[in-house]
Amino acid sequence: MVGPVLVGAVCGLAWAAALRAYMAELNGLVSEVDGVGTFVGVLLPGVLVGAGLGAAAVQPRTARTQLRWLAACPLLFAIVPLAFPGALVTLLTTGLGGGAVAVALGGIAGGYALGGRRLWARIVCGILPVALLAGIVVTVPLVGGPRLSLTDPRGAWVACLVGALLVVLMIAASLPFRRLRAGATSPAAGWPVRTRQNGTMRATYLFAPGDVRVVDVPDPVILQPTDAIVRVVAACVCGSDLHPYRKISPIEHGTAMGHEFVGLIEELGSEVTGLAEGDFVIAPFVWSDGTCDFCREGLQTSCRHGGGWGSKDVNGGQGEAVRVPFADGTLVKVPAGFDPALVPDLLTLSDVYSTGFHAAATAGVRPGMDVTVIGDGAVGLLAVLAARELGAERIVLMGHHEVRTDLGRAFGATDVVAERGEEGIARVKDLTGGDGTHAVLEAVGYLDAFEQALGIVRAGGTVSRVGVPQYTEGPIGRVQFGRNVTITGGIAPARAYIERLLPGVLDGSVHPGRVFDRELPLEEAPEGYRLMNEREALKVLLRPQPLSEGRATLPG
Questions:
Q1: Do residues 94 and 19 make contact, with C-beta atoms less than 8 angstroms apart?
Q2: What is the mean pLDDT of residues 58-86?
Q3: What is the pLDDT of residues 314-362, one digit of tens each?
Q4: Residue-range definition of the domain harbouring residue 487
Q5: Where residue 342 sits, what CATH number does that domain have?
Q6: In the chain, fewer beta carbons within 10 Å around the N or the C end?
Q7: Are 322 and 380 in the same domain?
Q8: Phi and psi dihedrals of 526, rounded to 5?
Q9: C-beta separation of 16 from 102 below 8 A
Q10: In this structure, are 344 and 367 located in the same domain?
């Protein structure tokens, strides 16, 4: 921000000085304006407004916001001189409206000289103040003294000198602070640069049951001013991806896959204000505008204008890049300087950790409670972690894969029950004095798991379902009514939880990324699906990488 402020201030000072000299010459009032009046009435507001607008213009702004800044300029011109009555003469001399607009334009030019997204805009805005400075009248002493004009040889030399100084300041200030160009990455991050080939990228598509391919598709582009293009650093295969993998009807052109990813912003639409190119961001598994009533209530999964990845004109997450609608409302920025080894942990916030936390939160888990988690998949294991973080005293994990349940114990499970059905229900009740547990977090999605949860929950307790249901009817009737059992859960609004969970990931107090037991390049995504489908892997992380050969092409 130092660079834009510096250039904006210099531009504002130059414009104000030139305008003051020009107006004073026209009105013949140079001798009537004292030094303090000149400084306070014109030059100081010029510096302040120029610096402020230089800072504001660096970030992409809507026309409405920019107009607000312009409207504020006359206020500064009006308020600041009132502190010095002698400055009122100068204020009237320079002209209130003309001075405000001139300095505002100078500040905007200075800001866009650094922050403009197009090279030509930066060049034009950089030259503009210099051209004005050289084209009107230059005053060497800012307070009093002789005036030089371009009709005087000395004036021409001074104009050139000041102009050159301004250009040098712009270049020097812009180098460390200007915004990254589209496609660039943050120098501090050290991420590899994405290699583009003929306007295409690599992405994972599903064509039929078991038929996953990584194919060439068009590179995403900005379609709306609220969009962002994110280069994917890491994505993954979700357990819910296995449902279509097993039983989808054949699709000739395939369907884009993946809804969990983290990455770097490559390009921003003109109305995105809270993000910058080069930022590392987490994408929740749905996109949302962040402004509708549901989003404000923390239920972004019901956003009135939102949607899912892989829908029309929106890429799936298992690819090299993704167009993100409503970037300000969807993406969560990760503070710079984090350890790249945390990428797997950060990726879990996109879905599985947030979903596990949603299970515990909607069940009302709090200190001293007994909790049962059904399912030893990634969501179930992270529901264990979430229950521990919320203070549960006893956490029973129901699963029968020893490697996974061992990880569950590391996350905080106090007991493991391998039995299922009636035997599993009886075992949990034995552990809890015959009552069952206060909360049951069901992370499987099948009817038998839901029935098991109803058998385990104690009277007055809560069953929270976060496994995607693979059934349409279940036992919700007089029995549960009589026991005062609450049934809750649902699709997790990950966007509402990411900022709450992020600090624990960044400070290393939790490591949810331990659920990733396989890591593959994007080109091996079909193998990742096979490994998870055959339960040879708990969760597969995919990292895009450029290829020079063996590229498949999307049919049609």
A1: yes
A2: 44
A3: 999 999 999 999 999 999 999 988 889 999 999 999 999 999 999 999 9
A4: 356-491
A5: 3.90.180.10
A6: C
A7: no
A8: -55, -35
A9: yes
A10: no
